[in-house]
Design goal:
By secondary structure, the protein is of the alpha/beta class. It has 15 helices and ten strands. The strands form three sheets. Strands 5-4-6-7-3-8 form a six-stranded mixed sheet, with helices on both faces. The radius of gyration is 20 Å and the shape is globular.
Length: 336
């Protein structure tokens, strides 16, 4: 399989690293198809986009016509020799902000239908990235049902269809889980071995790999944030705290609980933990709540450790990365 070159930071590309098990899972789906859309969720920047783009490459090599769409960033990849499909996706991506997002989200499904029906393709894949943020959470359930309809009610017979949608929006998980329209599957940050593969591709000077791991927990985007901050953890944390809108009013309202959670995120799993706070932390993509059992079949690629408080992972609740936890710590200290 040809490994893609992916953007890591301005003027810096890296080769797709690790995720061997995650790629193997896509290979297995290619053989039998996906009976339901696979909805992949996980921490911001954990590598879902890189995995999806590499998966499109793998599926093309396996004889699929594969369409990857990221409506939020107006990005697409058409791994098909049907030039008309690529042309229509390019036209949609060039539309005005707002219009482009909706058109790309719709075209991902329409393109697959045309490939099966009009063009008679027997092996088709649709890979959709961050679509729920692009179209609005209120439309998430309807969109997933449309993906399921593509599998169940195709315009013509087919051999195999692979449908995957990825999101870092924690609130989507509950909405989609209410129906038997998809299979939710979590993805975690990179394993230590995979993280080191990525880390070795970065230019010197850089901190030791142990320091980088403790600050990022294996999250590629957190590593990129550190790199762009000149490897200053203080600057990276300040940037993240600002992005997450950790206002003094929010911090003071929940100070006691936040102080407990930065020491052990499983404090938020207790029966007396306030649902409002948990909902806020999930909505702001600061934590992953109700972390799945670590059974490997439940996860895309490798599951997180059972419990590793050094990187903010509890048994049931985890900070998305150590930097997310440090951003909350910083907000707590500033409001003392």
């Amino acid at each position: 399989m040809r490994r893609l070159k992916l953007s890591f930071a301005p003027r810096l590309e890296v080769e797709f690293a690790d995720r061997e098990r995650g790629i193997q899972q896509v290979s297995e789906w290619a053989e039998r198809g996906t009976r339901f859309p696979i909805v992949v969720f996980g921490p911001e920047g954990c590598g879902k986009t890189a995995w999806l783009k590499q998966s499109a490459e793998l599926l093309r090599e396996r004889g699929f016509d594969a369409v990857y769409v990221d409506p939020l960033r107006r990005d697409f990849v058409a791994r098909t020799d049907v030039g008309e499909i690529a042309g229509r996706l390019a036209e949609a991506a060039a539309e005005a902000i707002g219009v482009a997002q909706l058109k790309l989200a719709t075209l991902a499904i329409d393109a697959a239908k045309e490939l099966v029906g009009r063009w008679g393709r027997k092996r088709v894949a649709v890979l959709v990235d961050e679509v729920f943020q692009a179209i609005g959470l209120d439309k998430a359930e309807t969109y997933v049902k449309s993906l399921l309809n593509l599998i169940e009610y195709p315009p013509a017979s087919y051999e195999s269809i692979v449908v995957i949608a990825a999101t870092s929006e924690g609130a989507t998980r509950e909405k989609i889980g209410r129906h038997l329209w998809a299979l939710p599957r979590p993805m975690w940050n990179m394993s230590r071995e995979g993280f080191e593969q990525l880390y070795r591709q970065l230019p010197d000077p850089k901190p030791g790999v142990e320091d980088a791991w403790r600050l990022t927990g294996g999250n590629p985007r957190a590593l990129s944030l550190l790199h762009q901050a000149g490897w200053s953890a203080e600057r990276a944390v300040a940037d993240l705290a600002e992005a997450k809108g950790l206002a003094p009013s929010f911090v003071e309202k929940w100070r006691r609980w936040l102080e407990e959670a930065v020491e052990d995120p499983d404090a938020l799993w207790r029966a007396d933990a306030p649902e409002e706070l948990v909902g806020e932390l999930v909505a702001r993509n600061l934590i992953v709540y109700n972390v799945y059992d670590r059974e490997s079949w439940l996860w895309i690629d490798q599951p997180p450790p059972e419990r590793d408080l050094e990187i903010g992972v509890g048994n049931h609740v985890a900070w998305q990365t150590p930097l997310h936890r440090e951003a909350v710590k910083r907000a707590l200290e500033k409001t003392k």
